[in-house]
Amino acid sequence: MTIRGVGVALLVIFFLVRCDLLEYSPNQVYDQDTPVNLNQKNLDKLFATPGDDTITIAFVGDSQRFYEELESFIDTANAISSIDFVLMAGDISDFGLLEEFEQIEDILSTLNKPFISVVGNHDVQAKGEETFERMFGPLNFSFIYNKVKFIAHNTNGREYAPGTIPDMAWLRKEFSKDDGAQYYVPVSHIPPFDDDFDKDLEADYTQLLREKKPIISLHGHIHEFKDGFPYEDGVRYMTSHSFELQSFVLLKIVKGKIYHEIISY
I want to staple 46 with a disulfide (CB 3.0 to 4.6 A). Which of 114, 163, 222, 228 is the partner? Predict the structure, then answer.
């Protein structure tokens, strides 16, 4: 190749990189177009909307690579005016890759109501934890909406050192705060009765929920809807469909009472 040819080739590569058409690595954490703090931005939208006695939630989980199904869900959810917000139970991505997160976010941006997500075990693969934190925010967070405190937290224990996840000290603090909440709803990806939950912490976790008496505990991971009392201790656990099943839970909370129906699309 001539010197001129080499120069042209280098110039082309320069412009491709400048235009973000090339990624340096499949483990790239962000680029100049990556959105940030989506959970907080969507909570700001939620808090800006006057609420009433009924909280209506589209409860879904495990979007992973089900892009067409996600688009169909959004068409359905956008048509239900009563939905206050969409609650996603984790596994936004399949391999923790930036490209996956950005594709899902691009689709989610067409929702006409706020969306909030907890972190899933697939989301922390590779460098996905860094990407999720940058794009969505902290892995453990809480918010109060119409006197209901939603305690979103990381339960992907298999991906961390034994005895560290979930963060029990943080959870106890969140349940004990004097912040005006009347009801509690813990939300995480992996339910405590699943084998991927850290078994060293299962007893402490379920004991805490027995003590604090949440009105329901919401989870994803198992890709199907379940609703019941697996520990027979008065604590109700519910899991969501994955998007591949083209159904979601329309969850209503009215003065601490839970009502639900399955919506297919």
Answer: 114
